[in-house]
Design brief:
Layout: E1 4-10, H1 18-27, E2 31-37, E3 39-40, E4 56-57, H2 59-69, E5 74-79, H3 87-97, E6 103-105, H4 116-128, E7 132-134, H5 156-161, E8 167-169, H6 177-184, E9 191-193, H7 202-209, E10 220-221, H8 231-242, H9 249-263
Parallel strand pairs: 1-2, 2-5, 5-6, 6-7, 7-8, 8-9, 9-10
Antiparallel strand pairs: 3-4
The structure holds zinc ion.
């Protein structure tokens, strides 16, 4: 198996030894690239639903971690909230001046992807030529978050406004896999990531690969939602779940390596 290109992982500052974990992950020869996202949801702590309030890592904190680990294998994505008036300028700043190589957007915060403010942010991201990772599909429960905002149908407006945007549909929009596949048909630059529930439905992955006149398997990219400590375990679990689905070794190489490299805009190494 080729070393992994993981397009979806998080730097969670509350995880003990988070920086050390990323240092160890980057040192592994099983790893080629790992996208690490900042995600600052500014959620109040909820004792009933504590999990999501731990996503409070700022772009500055991610930048500092990347500086400390200093590995070309780690690819930082900044997070912005399109409801903030200067969000388009923030994106430009973090990509042009601060070395971020993509953007993470989180609709369950309470905004729809077809909101004109989000379209404006996406226009800037398209112009910069970097990918955008949308959280799509069900979100872990918290009083401040709703899955409703993360349905793929709301991405259509972005595809129409920004047809060249490299848009990653996070978690394959589970459980709305088929909605994602059908909306994506007009937009060949979109990909679906296998993060968490994104790989639970093998039938949907096969379906996506067989749509006529579509990029098919080129759309499927690896993601883990890892924290640096568990990315490789999650890759193993993903592979174990997909293994009975009849994918060939060549298809695994596309999904777990080459497709992700293309999204990151990196030169593909010569294929044997
Ligand atoms: Zn995530």
């Amino acid at each position: 198996m080729l070393p992994i290109v993981d397009l979806h992982s998080h730097y969670v500052t509350s995880v003990p030894d988070a920086v050390e974990n990323y240092r160890r992950l980057a040192a592994s020869d099983q790893v080629h690239r790992v996208v690490v996202c900042a995600l600052d949801l500014k959620l109040p702590f909820s004792s009933d639903w504590p999990y999501m309030s731990s996503f409070n890592t700022t772009n500055q904190q991610l930048e500092e971690m990347i500086r400390q680990v200093a590995s070309p294998k780690l690819v930082p994505f900044c997070h912005v909230d399109p409801r903030e008036a200067d969000a388009p300028r923030q994106v430009e700043h973090w990509v042009r001046q601060r070395g971020m190589r993509g953007v993470k957007l989180y609709p369950p915060q309470g905004w729809y992807p077809n909101d004109p403010r989000c379209i404006e942010v996406c226009r800037v991201i398209q112009e910069l030529g970097v990918p955008v990772l949308f959280h799509m599909g069900r979100v872990a429960s918290h009083p401040g978050l709703r899955s409703e905002y993360a349905r793929p149908i709301y991405l259509e407006e972005i595809g129409l406004a920004c047809p060249k945007l490299k848009l990653i549909v996070g978690h394959f929009a589970a459980p709305w896999y088929f909605e994602a596949i059908h909306i994506a048909m007009s937009f060949p630059e979109w990909t679906f990531d296998l993060t968490t529930s994104g790989h639970w439905n093998t039938e949907a992955i096969h379906y996506a690969c067989k749509v006529p006149w579509d990029p098919g398997i080129k759309r499927i990219v690896l993601g883990t939602d890892g924290t640096g400590a568990d990315n490789l375990n999650r890759v193993r679990e993903t592979r174990e779940m997909l293994q009975p689905g009849g994918f060939t070794e060549e298809e695994f190489d596309l999904m777990f390596h080459y497709n992700g490299l293309r999204v990151l805009g990196e030169e593909l190494p010569a294929r044997k």
